[in-house]
Amino acid sequence: MSAMLKKRYGPWVDQGPTSSIDHAVRMRVLAIPQAGMGAWAFHGWQAALPETVELLPVELPGRNSRMLEPKGQSMRQLVTALVDALAETLRETPFVVFGHSLGAWMAYEVCVELQKRGGPTPVGLVVSGARAPQLADPKNDADRVQPRMADLPSRAFWAHFERRYGANPDLAHVAVKEHVEPLLKADFRLFETYQPRLAVLPYAVVACAAVGDDRVLDSQLEAWRERCGGGFAMQRFDATWPPWATPHRWPVDDPIAFLAWFGPWLCSH
Fold first, then answer.
1. Where does the Thioesterase domain start and stop, copy by copy (predicted)?
2. Sign of CA dihedral 170, 176, 180, 184
């Protein structure tokens, strides 16, 4: 049994404690987190997945175990570096790409980059909490009050952040806010300046979100169908969340319903 092998795939993957068994793995999941978060957001998932599935939680530069590295300057630059680092690993075993929110767009761009390079080809793409990439312009953001946040002064940034995502008690202290604000703004800038490469992916695409997540409309999830050439599905699933939060945080607050669907879906592919 492999345990605490945090960096066996290099700096771009931080598995944390894992219960995957090397010889049993038949499918991998490259999982890309939302803005401001790191690989830790997925560290509880492995135990809930079948032993034949190995989770590869992505650690982006500029945070957590890669705190001293420069933050990504563009979606294209990050995706190119990620694919450069992991393409050979992904060739070894069938794999699915998953991403939530900002990570959903990054997951899509990973698939586009892999297609551009001629492989390896995922079994499918699963995206959560994000409108389809052809709707990336901030004018389509579900937040009509303040769709652009990356360049706001600090006080206004936090006011709109809490209005949109809730007042996280872990971010209540001024020193904590000062520490995480540069990372959050850098990630929001990636989100707000994203220029997609529009392609049709020749495999399954699933677009999902938690029930009640108002960061993405049903019509914006349905629009992912235009990016799919191999079987499209859309769904919302139940989740619970702390009283201060919103359903958009489901990957860390309550992934149970999603994982109950995801595990069998992976095994069926």
1. 29-239
2. positive
Residue 2 lies in a domain: no
**Domain carrying residue 61:** 22-137+195-267
Which pLDDT tens digit goes with each residue over 218-243? 999 999 999 999 899 999 999 999 99
In this structure, the number of other CB atoms found within 10 A of the CB of residue 6 comes to 15
The structure tokens listed for 224 are 């992912």
93-143 residue pLDDT tens: 999 999 999 999 999 999 999 999 999 999 999 999 999 999 999 999 999
Q: Residue 61 sits in a domain of what CATH number?
A: 3.40.50.1820
pTM of this structure: 0.95
Domains: count for the chain: 1
At 259, list the tokens: 């994982």
Residue 169 DSSP code: G
H helix and E strand count, the chain? 7, 6
